[in-house]
Amino acid sequence: MARPASGKEVLEKAKETLVNARTVEELRQAQAVVLPLEYGFSIDQVAAVLGISKGWACQLRRRFIQAGGLPAETKPKRGGRHREIMSKEEEAAFLAPFFDKAIHGGILIVGEIKSALDERMGRKTALASTYNLLHRNNWRKLAPDKRHTKTDSN
Hints:
- The protein is an all-alpha fold.
- Helix content is 55%, strand content 0%.
- The chain has two domains: 8-66, Arc Repressor Mutant, subunit A; 88-136, no CATH class.
- The protein has helices at 11-20, 24-39, 43-50, 54-66, 88-103, 110-121, 127-136.
- The relative contact order is 0.09.
């Protein structure tokens, strides 16, 4: 015998969401809550009605219930700078003196930037972090050609 369905405290909100759902995901979440509580469907039957897997039907129910009866975001948001050490503005301000020096005929030395970054952070950072910082701020390495383009190709 299966466990009785939980979520009775959000049943009324789920019924409201059935009427006012703006997306298919919101509708499915509400249906995943209402069908077992109102009509006694098993989770297998709910999954068959919604056209999703049993595990996904459980997740939809759980997310709706944990969100307190509000349709929860079904897909985790990706992207962003979760482990950033400086904001974009701080990065631009940090690199400005180095870029100014390079623009006025100087050479951009990554080792100097790395040591300045280490000093600013108060710890050692990876060299790859320095290169990633430079690439995020539109720096690219310009290497001289092996030969001049106007030379004779004999």
